[in-house]
Amino acid sequence: MAVKLRRSTDTVGSFIKFKIRVNDKEVAQIAANEEQVITLPEENAKMQVKQFSGKSNALIVNDGETVEITNGPFVFWGFVLSLLLVPLATTLLGVDRLIGLALVVIVYLIALQFVDSFKLTKLDDTHLSTE
């Protein structure tokens, strides 16, 4: 039993591999624009990817399916949030500036725990390229 996994996350985190988890165990890593075949231990296995504090939705997968990793909506909104908060924090002076920037990073990392940075989607036959 196996699943084909494609990573299509553009430039977000492209220098770092994602950890692929099946049934809450790390089984492999996948680089940007890479495609891998992941062996499943059983039918209806739970798949998820993680990178640092970011994670994807958990998806139940079965033999023969193709799954694509894309950016989730938080990637965009996290970028917008940082564009708003970082300039605000840099208007402070001295130690307050450092504290402000540290708070921005902490808020971002905490937010990553509650939202999916990446999205796993099953592809049907219409999405598959001819090989």
Tally of individual helices: 2
Estimated structural class: alpha+beta
Oligomer: single chain
Helix share, percent: 25-40%
The description of the largest β-sheet is: 5 strands, antiparallel
Q: How does the overall form come out from the CA principal axes?
A: elongated
What's the alpha carbon Rg, rounded to whole Å? Answer: 18 Å
- Series of secondary-structure elements, N-terminal to C-terminal: EEEEEEEEHHE
Work out the number of β strands.
Answer: 9
Give the uncertain stretches in residue-range form: none
The averaged pLDDT comes out at 85
**Strand coverage percent:** 35-45%
CA-CA gap between termini:
20 Å
SSE layout and pairings?
Layout: E1 2-7, E2 18-22, E3 25-30, E4 35-39, E5 45-51, E6 54-55, E7 59-61, E8 66-71, H1 73-90, H2 95-114, E9 118-123
Parallel strand pairs: 1-8
Antiparallel strand pairs: 1-4, 2-3, 2-5, 5-6, 5-7, 8-9
Structure description:
- By secondary structure, this protein is α+β, with helices and mostly antiparallel strands.
- It has helices at 73-90, 95-114, and strands spanning 2-7, 18-22, 25-30, 35-39, 45-51, 54-55, 59-61, 66-71, 118-123.
- Strands 2, 3, 5, 6 and 7 form a 5-stranded antiparallel beta sheet that branches. A 4-stranded mixed beta sheet has the order 4-1-8-9.
- Strand 5 and strand 6 form a beta hairpin.
- The relative contact order is 0.20.
